[in-house]
């Protein structure tokens, strides 16, 4: 029997991969707001403003999903820093409404949080200690996590690492932007003192579906097997993409002023998600698909 999965933010990078890699037996219905071009062709589409509480309830009733992946977010830290009230409406309040509705309908909820909930000081980070985010985006994600745990304790909360890889025509991740820059013969600037657990979009989608299959509850880190600096990742990427002449400028975080705080080291401890069967991949997946 086919089950229905409602995916918010289906036109974003991860939503595209969720629709593309959905296992047999799952029908994906994706919501989008302002970027229909980012939808994967396999996803059925519904335009939805998640900040319209009544519209969200009507959509849940109409679709009647077996599970919900809540991926939609105002995820640009700079934008969140400059517009905390506007972004909090989507990142916290709308998330809380959706969690309440899923609990009422007994619908399994998976919520994607962020590595930005961690402060970047004492890596690697496990899920157990209470995080102490240093920017507005991280604070909003942590507040949303706490709200979900209050109203929908059976939900799975997934703190996702920085993602990379292939995506649809209407959305791009940082690696695709680097590739376009290199193809123009221009230099990419990357921090050598900013460490991340880089995760391919395909692996991220696989992790979410594994958590769904296992009926997982609580908080999980989801990242790649090998943490490295953005500069190291740029070097690895340019080689894998067969761009030996790619120009890369390494800089320290201290050399660049940013509106939102950027945690230095967000390396994940992945023991918890490994225990349920997730096999983290080393950086390198999806590089071949980006060459063409």
Plain-language structure description:
Strand 5 (108-114), helix 5 (136-151) and strand 6 form a beta-alpha-beta unit. The strands form four sheets. The protein has a seven-stranded parallel beta sheet, with helices on both faces. The protein has a two-stranded parallel sheet with strand order 7-10. The chain has ten helices and 13 strands. Helix content is 36%, strand content 19%. The protein has a single domain, classed as Rossmann fold, CATH 3.40.50.720. By secondary structure, it is α/β, with parallel strands linked by helices. Helix 1 (13-20) packs across helix 7 (201-213), helix 2 (53-63) packs parallel to helix 4 (84-105) and helix 4 runs parallel beside helix 5.
Could you give a short account of the major beta sheet?
A: 7 strands, parallel
The termini sit apart by: 38 Å
Number of strands: 13
Q: Do you know the CATH architecture?
A: 3-Layer(aba) Sandwich
Which outline best applies? globular
For this structure, the CATH topology is Rossmann fold
Name of the CATH homologous superfamily: NAD(P)-binding Rossmann-like Domain
How many domains? 1
Average per-residue pLDDT, rounded, comes to 95
Sheet/helix structural class:
alpha/beta
Number of helices, where a helix is a run of at least 4 consecutive DSSP H or I residues:
10
The SSE string, one letter per element, is EHEEHEHHEHEEHEEEHEEHEHH
């Amino acid at each position: 029997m086919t089950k229905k999965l409602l995916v918010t933010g289906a036109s974003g990078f991860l939503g595209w991969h969720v629709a593309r890699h959905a296992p047999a037996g799952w029908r994906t219905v994706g919501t989008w707001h302002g970027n229909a071009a980012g939808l994967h062709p396999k996803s059925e589409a519904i335009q939805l403003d998640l900040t319209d509480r009544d519209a969200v309830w009507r959509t849940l009733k109409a679709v009647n999903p077996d599970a919900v992946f809540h991926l939609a977010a105002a995820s640009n830290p700079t934008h969140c820093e400059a517009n905390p009230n506007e972004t909090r409406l989507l990142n916290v309040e709308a998330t809380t409404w959706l969690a309440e509705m899923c609990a009422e309908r007994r619908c399994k909820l998976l919520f994607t949080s962020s590595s930005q909930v961690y402060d970047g000081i004492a890596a690697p980070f496990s899920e157990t200690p209470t995080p102490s985010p240093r920017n507005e985006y991280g604070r909003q994600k942590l507040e949303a996590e706490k709200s979900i745990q209050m109203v929908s304790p059976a939900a799975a909360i997934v703190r996702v690492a920085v993602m990379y890889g292939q995506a649809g025509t209407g959305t791009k991740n940082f690696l695709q932007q680097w590739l376009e820059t290199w193809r123009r013969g221009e230099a990419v600037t990357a921090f050598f003192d900013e460490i991340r657990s880089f995760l391919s979009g395909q692996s991220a989608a696989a992790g979410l579906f594994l958590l769904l299959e296992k009926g997982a509850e609580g908080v999980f880190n989801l990242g790649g097997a090998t943490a490295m600096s953005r500069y190291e990742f740029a070097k690895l990427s340019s080689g894998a993409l067969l761009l030996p002449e790619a120009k890369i400028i390494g800089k320290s975080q201290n050399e660049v002023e940013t509106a939102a705080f950027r945690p230095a080291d967000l390396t994940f401890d992945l023991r918890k998600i490994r225990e349920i069967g997730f096999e983290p991949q080393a950086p390198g997946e999806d590089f071949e698909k980006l060459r063409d």
